[in-house]
Amino acid sequence: MSSTASSPATATSDTFAESLRRTEAIRSDLDAHPERYRVLTGDRPTGALHLGHYFGTIASRVVLQDQGVETWVLVADYQVITDRETTGNIQENVRGLVLDYVAAGIDPDRSTIFTHSAVPALNQLLLPFLSLVTEAELLRNPTVKAELAASERALSGLLLTYPVHQAADILFCKGNLVPVGKDQLPHIEQTRVVARRFNERYAKKNPVFPEPQALLSESPEIPGLDGRKMSKSYGNTIALGMTADETAKIIRKAPTDSDRHITFDPENRPGVSALLTSAALCTDGDPVQIAEEIGDGGGGALKAFVTEAVNERFAAHRARRAELAADPGYVSEVLRRGNDRANEVAEKTLDEVRAAMGMVY
Q1: C-alpha distance from residue 28 to each of 17, 31, 127 (Å)
Q2: Cα separation of 94 and 74, whole Å?
Q3: How far apart are CA 156 and CA 110, in angstroms?
Q4: Could you tell me which residues come within 8 angstroms of residue 86 by beta carbon, excluding any fewer than 6 positions away?
Q5: pLDDT tens, position by position, 153-166
Q6: Mean pLDDT computed over every residue of the chain
Q7: What is the reported pLDDT for 234?
Q8: Counting Cβ atoms within 10 Å, is residue 2 exposed (0-12), middle (13-18) or buried (19+)?
Q9: Which of 178, 176, 268, 256 shows the shortest CA–CA distance to 215?
Q10: In Å, how far are 261, 268, 283, 288 from 272, measured between CA atoms?
């Protein structure tokens, strides 16, 4: 593909159906050959991690790690300012992410946990990568379009180039597998385009970068307490680090309706159905069966059931998190080790990029 190929947002090679097919093939290969894969995943530290993060991504990261897949977990602190004007509470948020990662089972001795801002060579890849994409391609990216539509501010250069930042995140460590949801597929395709164009322009004989594949999440969209997608921006989350009492308090405030007979009906009863979904995820149960069990118990019985389910599911997580938090130097040591490894790998990749571009003097 040349640098004038069709944009990721309109490419037909990575349709959802094709991505599903690829995901099925990859999953069948993971158990037998975990050594073939290097996963890059992560989160922006914009607030506390919640149930949506856990069931949507974190639990699957632990599974991949335990399968023997090399796993890199990025705390994308630089990307906080992609759509925000401040980095308020950034240190607290980064610390919280690391504590939740480790409490959930991500092992710093087997997975690399690192911060964006601590790896200069990673971010330096942005310069050559930007030369490989057009403004029109960036503007067509669904995330850029959605963020711009939701914002009352002018489009910043950082938001416009966000998809290329993500390409650098993935390719600096030569990640070839990225766990994502359906809405993130255009980012993976953009990364594939960047890798392909770099190799064709500078490294045809000895390609520098792999073209990463998407590993589509098996988890459905996790509804928040109000029935909308669970999101920090909506204020409808159950944070992983909440105490049992805090969990009970926030669930008591969740909206339901006046019908005492509990049924699972996401379209007509979003609040009730969201609570049932949370209970089902935490108990590995079925929301319809849970609704039948509660029956005519009403919202009070439903909320009591959900509270018990969440608190039981995350009791061990919260105990481990508290234990880790009691050591003031723990998070810093995890990040020091992770950042050291990320810098080592990023510098090596940047050396390869310079060599391919003829910029070694």
Answers
A1: 17, 7, 37
A2: 11
A3: 37
A4: none
A5: 788 898 899 999 99
A6: 91
A7: 85
A8: exposed
A9: 178
A10: 10, 9, 17, 11
Structure tokens at 201: 């322009």
Q: Given the structure tokens 């792999």, which residue do they identify?
A: 210
Q: What are the b/e assignments for 208-227, b being 16+ CB within 10 Å?
A: bbbbbbbbbbeeeebbbbeb
Please state the length of the chain: 361
Three-state SS string over 91-153 comes to HHHHHHHHHHHHHHCCCCCCEEEEEHHHCHHHHHCHHHHHCCCCHHHHHHCHHHHHHHHHCCC
CA nearest neighbour of 130 among 160, 155, 110? 160
Instruction: Give the DSSP letter of residue 216.
Output: E
Q: What would the pLDDT profile of 344-353 be if each residue is shown by its tens digit?
A: 999 999 999 9
| Better-predicted residue by pLDDT, 145 or 243 | 243
Contact between residue 173 and residue 40 where contact means Cβ atoms under 8 Å apart: yes
